[in-house]
Amino acid sequence: MIPTLSHEFDSGAAAASAAVAAAAPGHGVGVRPASGFDADAIDRMGIADLEAVGSDKWTRYPGCIGAFIAEMDFGLAPAIQQAIRDAADRCALGYIPEPWKRRVARACAAWQRDRYGWDVDPSRIRVAPDILEILEVFLREVVGAGHAIVVPTPAYMPFLSVPRLYGVNVIEVPMLRVDGDVHAGTHAPGGESGWAFDFDAIERAFAEPSTRGFMLCNPHNPIGKVLTADEMRRISELAARHGVRVFSDEIHAPFVYEGHRHVPFATISELAARQSWTATSASKSFNIPGTKCAQVILTNDDDLDLWMRRAEWSEHQTATIGAIATTAAYEQGGAWYEDMLGYVRRNERLLDEWMRGLLHKVGYVPPQGTYIAWLDFTPLGLDDPAGYFYKKAHVALTDGRECGRAGAGCVRMNFAMPTPLLAECLTRMADALAADGLI
Ligand SMILES: Cc1ncc(COP(=O)(O)O)c(C=O)c1O
Question: Over the stretch 68-79, which tens digit does the pLDDT of each residue have?
């Protein structure tokens, strides 16, 4: 049985967090920043406040710090809140009409142009409820049952499970650690990612007669790797040699840190544009996944034609409220997004300090993007760290094994939470390990 929260977690950070929890959000808040991203108010949010908001992250494992599902705890950009209120006032929430699809496409195209320098024609951008729906169309129509998709691992969990629902075989290709020992204290030196593609293994997988697809995730959830144009060129060349199509999931593109740059796969060459489907969404960067409006960018005329003939019902399932929220995010959410990214970076630096300090025995490569960290507990001899921390620290993490065979002994951790809660989360984990003499 899972014990309830108690004084056993009463470390310094926990006590500090209890104090911020006591200051409910909204109480004593000073002048709200112009962007609407109120870091001070977020810092004051405690577990009870987040449970009261009622997200999956904070209700699925009651009493636990939610660090598993990829949601952020930072509220909403004011422009999104206003757009949703206005839509309710206008009673404008029927099935998604064509004009809203076109507005989302234009807003998405402008975001791609302004943020990544990709001048994409809005008529190539179509909508679907979420990225997985787009992937499902790709699996059904491009890969096809009885064929295979190659997935670098560790991977975002549904990339391994969803293909199987469509009779598509998954060929896992583990990523390589390039900084030597996969075990303790292997912090990647500056400028070095610490993760690399195993191109030989990828080519062998591409050479399998059944292989038709490749799953690219950039930035890569859960390892936080931001791909270079050279890496993508190599993938594109190998894919061309073996007639493999590329699904490029770029949902985490807004979370790329200094020293790295998001390069959309379809922009690296005409070949790559013809090979790929690009899937994106404002759902991660503005925390609106429940509003259901992702975008697919189809840079190959035949694919666009296929989508129009075969994905009508995917478009129809897209939510009007999502189109409204997404358009507001892309068009008016820029300042909120910049401040939010600064907060995420602050959390990443805190995490990094812990990983260099008390938790230095844990295998860790600082992410280059995303708000997700990959922690390897095999040096400590933990074979089920997610279960261990759930039981002993009341921290809910993703079991690395859900991310592929390469994930045994690892966990995926979402660090997009109030900074004091992140400190409490790490304190609880370290306290549990220390009590067992593991650190
Ligand atoms: C890499 C990746 N792709 C897709 C998704 C799904 O996002 P959505 O349901 O908002 O489309 C997620 C969510 O965490 C993700 O991390």
Answer: 999 999 999 999
